[in-house]
Amino acid sequence: MATRANGSSCSLACLMAAIFFLLIVSSRGAHGGSIAIYWGQNGNEGTLADTCATGKYAFVNLAFLCSFGSGQTPQLNLAGHCDAYSGACANLTADIARCQSMGVKVLLSIGGGAGGYSLASKQDAFDLARYLWESFLGGRPSAPGGKRPLGDAVLDGVDFDIEGGDPDYYGDLAAYLKAYSGKGAAGKELLLSAAPQCPFPDQWVGKALDTGLFDYVWVQFYNNPPCQYAGGSAANLLDAWRRWTAGVEARYIFLGLPAAPGAAGSGFIPAGSLKSQVLPALKTSSKYGGVMLWSKYYDDQDGYSSAIKNAV
Known about the structure:
This protein is of the alpha/beta class. Helices cover 35% and strands 18% of the residues. It has ten helices and ten strands. It has helices at 2-30, 48-53, 93-101, 122-136, 170-178, 206-209, 235-247, 271-282, 296-302, 304-308; strands spanning 34-39, 59-68, 75-76, 105-111, 116-117, 157-161, 191-194, 216-220, 252-258, 288-294. Helix 4 crosses helix 5. The longest helix has 29 residues, at 2-30. The termini are far apart.
């Protein structure tokens, strides 16, 4: 009798411990579970409003403000969608408002793999922060004749997709931008995100991430074989993920992936493998936020977000 009682007690305790563990793992993964997408670099990827209306994305990064700093006039390039020079991108005001009304956060991505950009000093960072605030966020142009390229839309924040230039002053830019949070007529929080490549620390935004000012970090786990999924194995990716979650102070960290095999040179993960091999391991981290995809155009080709959404 005593032996049975002890065995039952042990079994019950073990069962309760197992349930408790599963609840912890489940809750850790449940807080994020969203998808971020880049939009703007292909005129055949549909409108911004239609992108948000799919209900698949929680964040849309408008790509890119591709030239800035070192005395340059900042240049917005949204490829085939609109011509910023002629003022035609102001017609996106209604689309942005529509996205935000559906709960989608819309951020301006600065940098990218093309164009020319670099910050030469703290003053340079300050000037760019002021330009971004007055042109895309809650401020209004202070310079005579200044215009807002996206009209009256107030974006939710700025994404740092920095892939070149001097890395020393992006932390200053982050600090200057965050100082605007809660200001302006809208009075809303100003979000900061970054898209570093998976080798840790990232050579261009690693110093900026050390500030702890970033809300979301969608790490590009592609085009870098030493830290990406390859040959059916997630080992390198998971090792890199652990370094990122341990080494970066951010609200959430996302798994950045190509949305189709043609979207990157390497690193595409078949949807089935992502769901069975990768996401369960990532969701044990309290910093897990979801998946970032490059890009809306490629997502349309492969239907990747639809295939993974319920698992994210």
